[in-house]
Write a structure and sequence with these properties.
Distance between the termini: 41 Å
Order of helices and strands: EEHEEEEE
Number of helices: 1
Shape: globular
Number of strands: 7
Helix content: 10-25%
Structural class: alpha+beta
Amino acid sequence: MAKRTTPWTDQTMNPIDVQERLDEFVSRVQYMVNHYWERMNFTHSDPNTIYAEYGKKYARIVSDDRDANGAGQRFVHSFVNMTNGDILKAGGWKAPAPNPVRGNIFEDDFGAHCVNEHGTVYLKR
């Protein structure tokens, strides 16, 4: 299959591969959140919902705990660079932190080793 230019950049890459890997990464983060809620015996509400919102270069991975009435909040779990699959710590709502890369969605575990239910893990010195 010929490589195509992604809609996010001018780099040559197969956007279908990126999307599939990103979907699996989001699925694994959702599993971590669900498992955490079970482990902590939280019963006051359902676990946060994890999903991706897409920008020009980055996918923002969002953790949403809003209920049906809209009460609650959303926060950024992490960012994924759509040009190369790098997983980055959130620097705020709009952009990742300028810190080093934490992992990559093209690793064997889809980058799950570099995140937990709350966000990206801290760098080890």
